Amino acid sequence: MRPSEAAELLATELSAWGINADPQPSRNGGDTWVSVWTGLLVRCDGLTFSWTPKDRRSAAVHYAPADSPRAAAEMVAAHYRLLVARYPAPTCRLQGLEAAMPQ
């Protein structure tokens, strides 16, 4: 399976968990990266998905087979929930931005 195909399947499975993921294929057809959350980036080489959580206590890398995107999504979703609890999305206030924007 091509890395970009596997990454798209993972993103689809993650959406079933209510998680927005953004697959970023390589320009040269190599590995594809799936951006899930700050500190959670999943690499796909076509054979495996791999990721290292931001808050890791060791150099552990987690793996899942690329031909099982549903299982990978379940494991990634577990890490996602931990990260969201520790590092929630920032809120952004845009008051006064209109005045600062060039016309």
Can you characterise this structure?
This protein has helices spanning about 5-15, 70-85, 95-100; strands at about 20-25, 30-35, 40-45, 50, 60-65. It has a 5-stranded antiparallel beta sheet with strand order 1-2-3-4-5, covered by helices on one side. It has one domain. The chain has about 100 residues and is of the alpha+beta class. Mean pLDDT is about 85; it is low at about 100-103. Helix 1 crosses helix 2 (about 70-85). The protein is globular and about 35 Å long.
Beta fraction: 15-25%
The domain tally reads 1
Q: SSE order, as H and E? A: HEEEEEHH
Mean model confidence by pLDDT: 83
Give, in spatial order, the strands making up the sheet with the most strands: 1-2-3-4-5
Taking all Cα atoms into account, the compactness measure Rg is 16 Å
Count up the helices: 3
The profile of the biggest β sheet is: 5 strands, antiparallel
Helicity level? 25-40%
Report the count of strand segments. Answer: 5
Distance between the termini: 48 Å
Anisotropy-based shape: globular
Which regions have little confidence, pLDDT < 50, spanning 5+ residues? 99-103
> Structural class from helices and strands?
alpha+beta
